[in-house]
Amino acid sequence: MAGSAFLSILRRDLRLAFRRVSEWANPLLFFTAVAGMFPLALSPDRLAMSPGEGELYGLQSLGIGVLWMAALLSSLMGLDRLFLNDADDGSMEQLVLSPAPLLSIVYGKLAAHWLVSALPLILLVPVFGLVYQLTADAIAMLAFALFLATPALTVLVAIGAALTVNVRSAAAVIGLVVLPLCAPILIYGARATALALDAESAAQPLYLIASFTFLAVSLGPIAIAAAVRVGLE
Amino acid sequence: MKLPLWFHRFGSPPYVYGLANSVAPWLGGAGLILVAIGSYLGLAVAPPDYLQGDVYRIIYIHPQTAYVGMMAYTLMAVSAGIGFIWHIKLAHAVAVSAAPIGASFTFCALVTGAIWGRPTWGTYWEWGDPRLMFELLLLFLFLGYLALRASFDERDKADRVSAVLAFVGIVNVPIIHYSVLWWNTLHQGPTISRLDAPAMDTAMLVPFLIMVAGFTAVFYWLLLRRLQGEILEREQGTRWLRDFVRGTAA
Q: Could you give the angle at the alpha carbon of A134 between the alpha carbons of A128 and A135, nearest 5°?
C-alpha cells in the first residue's frame, strides 16, 4: 500500500510537471540569470584586487559562493507547485483522506520535486563552474556536494511550502523561514567546494552534509505531513 | 497518552494567571538583585584577566545573553510541541510569549559579541566563526517564527503551524552548542561546561554563575508577565476573566 502510493504519486507529479514546462524550467532560468549576472555587480578590477592569488582566485572564490546561493534561491523558486496547486484544487484533501499513509504520499511528492528541480540543477552547475573558471576537481566536488545536499534542501523547502499553504503573500515568509534552516548546507557545501579547489580533502564537510541530509530526509517528512494536516484543518 | 491530574491544572488559564501573578514579582526581584550582586562582583571584585585585561569582563554579560536566547528557543519549541501534541492552548501561549524575549536576548548576544570581538579578535564580525553564524541563525529562526505567526489571521492555526516550525528549528539548537567543539576557529572552546574542573578561576566563576542565575530569573520574570498579557488577550470575554477584572476593579 505504502509503496504503491509512493510510486503513483511520484508518477502523477512527474507527469504534471512535464506538462507545464515553465514549472521546471523557470527555476533553472532563474539560476542561470542569478549566476550569470552576479559578476556584473562587481567591477573587473575589484576581482583582480582580491587578496588571494591574483585575479583568478578572486573569481573562483566568488563563484563558489554565488553558485551555492543561486542554487538555494532557485530551489525556493519552484516551491509553490509542491503543495499549493493541489491544495487549491482540493486534491490535497483527497490525498490526506485516502487510506494510504500520508508519509508515503509526502515522500512521493518530495521525490518527484527533487527529480524535477534538483537533478537538472546538478547537471547545469558544471557549466557555470566553467564560467567561474573552477578547476575540474572543484566542479566535480560542487556537483557531488549538490547531489548530497539537494535532498535536504528539497525537504526544507517543502517544510516551508507546507507551513505556508494558506498564507496569501507566502514568498517573503518562506524565505525568512527556510533560509536559516538551509545555512548548514550552504556553509559545508561551499567549504567542500573550496577545499576541492585548493586540492585538499573535503571529507569532513561532506560527512556533515551527508548526516544533515539523512537527518532532514528521515525526520523532515514527519513535520511536512503534520504541517499539511494543520493546513487543511 | 494519559496525563497526571496536576499536569492538567497547568492547562487552566485562571490557575496559571494567578500563579504567574504571585510568582512573577519574586522572580523579578531575585533576578534584579542577583544581577546587581553579579555586576558588582564581576566589575569591581574579580581580578583582571592576565591576557585580556579588563576587556574580558563582558564575559559577565555576553555568554549569559547567548545562553538565555538558546534556553528561550528550547522552551518555545518544547511548549509549542506540548501544545501541538496534547492540544493545550496555554502551552502555545507560553511559546508565543517566549519568542520576542528570546529574540531580544539573542540580539543582545550578537551585539555584545561584536563589542567583545573588536578588541580581542580585531574585528566586530568574523564571518568564519560558525558559532557567530549560528547565533545569527537563531535570531532568524525567532524572527521567522514570529513572521510565520503574523501571516495567519486565526490564532489557532498560527499556533499549530508555528509549532511545527519551532520543532523543526530546535534541531539547530544542539548544532549551535556543539559547533564550538566541531570547528574551533576564533571562538574559544567551552570553559564552563566541561566535565572536569572548570578552567576558570573561582573569583571569576562565582560572579559568572550569579549572572547566569540572574539573567535566567529575569527571563522567566519577563516570560510570566508576557504570558499574563497573552492569557488576557486569548481569554477575552470568558466569565472568569470578567469576574477577575470586576473583582480587582471593585
A: 130
- Residue that has been written with the C-alpha cell 523579578 in this structure: B28
Instruction: Give yes or no for residue A89 having a pLDDT over 50.
Output: yes
pLDDT band at B188 (very low <50, low <70, confident <90, very high): low
Tally of domains in chain A: 1
Closest partner CB to A215 (pick from B137, B141, B171) = B171
Report which of A147, A1, A129, A155 is spatially closest to residue A65, judged by C-alpha positions: A129
Task: Report the complex ipTM.
Answer: 0.81
In angstroms, what CA-CA distances link A83 with A36, B81, B224? Answer: 30, 24, 38
Task: Decide: residue B161, CB within 10 A, 0-12 exposed, 13-18 middle, 19+ buried.
Answer: buried
Which of B151, B155, B157 to substitute to test the interface with A, most A CBs within 10 Å?
Answer: B151
Contact B47, B204 (CB under 8 A): yes
Q: Which residue among A166, A180, A223 places its CB closest to the CB of B167? A: A223
Mean pLDDT computed over A114-122: 90
Residue numbers of the domain that contains A122:
2-232
CA distance B78 to B236: 26
Residue A215: its chain B contacts at CB < 8 A?
A: 171
Write out chain B residues lying below 8 Å of A213, CB-based.
none
